[in-house]
Amino acid sequence: MNNKQATILVTGANGQLGKELQAFAHHYPSYHFLFVSKEELNIADAAATERYFTAQSIDFCINCAAYTAVDKAESDAENAFLINGTAVATLAAVCNKYNTQLIHISTDYVFDGTATKPYKETDPSNPVSVYGRSKLQGEIAALENNPSTIIIRTAWVFSSFGNNFVKTMLRLMKERESINVVNDQLGCPTYAADLAAAIMQIIASGKSNKNPGIYHYSNAGITNWYAFAVSIKELSGSSCLVNPISTAQYPTAAKRPAYSVLDTTKIKNAFGVTIPSWEESLEQCLALLK
Length: 290
Prior knowledge:
Elements: E1 6-11, H1 16-24, E2 31-36, H2 46-55, E3 60-63, H3 77-97, E4 101-107, H4 130-145, E5 150-154, E6 157-158, H5 165-175, E7 178-182, E8 186-187, E9 190-191, H6 192-204, E10 213-216, E11 223-224, H7 225-236, E12 241-245, H8 265-271, H9 278-289
Parallel strand pairs: 1-2, 1-3, 3-4, 4-5, 5-10, 6-9, 7-12
Antiparallel strand pairs: 8-11
Helix pairs in contact: 1-6, 2-3, 3-4, 5-7, 7-9
């Protein structure tokens, strides 16, 4: 009789999503979780990755390991492509060899941001930054090396863990009397805790192997960075003045997509995932940060 607990490996476990998965794991006592940081398992090291999989019997691998310094990537392309591209190819191949389903996290940055309606999974990708190109390379490699891979593209991720827009705004609002925030980039903020819950729902559904491919997940509701910052200000009770500015007034090394709204119909239909609004999730996140 086979009562073996399914084992879930989470790589890049010290990032926002990795930390949220750690916080969420106790809701799923029927799974055995392995959380590894890049120091514990460097997925860019093919031999080390192979050894790790040989020593463990892993049913699912959630790959949260990524090079996410969007602006730095412009001058550090080699490392961005190593971690977001080459390493993902290695991990996917090892997962395929050991019959492990890979759930790989990707980004809205695979699109150029010129759309006027929410991006579907089938829309053509056209990244405009090194980060976006490196993440697209990872997507392609993952599906080529392991056809059972699920790729989840997400956007504007925030959490009570790690570095993100919400925590940066809270800090700046404490330090300054006024801040300037871009108001002409549209998107859907994503609470990493909600994404973690959705990933676990996909695994627990028993349907993940039958539904490989690319999916989009972000919280419900469209906003811009300025309006997002104003919500943070109001919910946190800050008196800091928030001023709207244009992207042109805030030059960055990497070009940002002006429109990053993701269509989440497919993930809802395939796995019955329910998606909260970003506003209610922001309230939850801020309550934890208090």
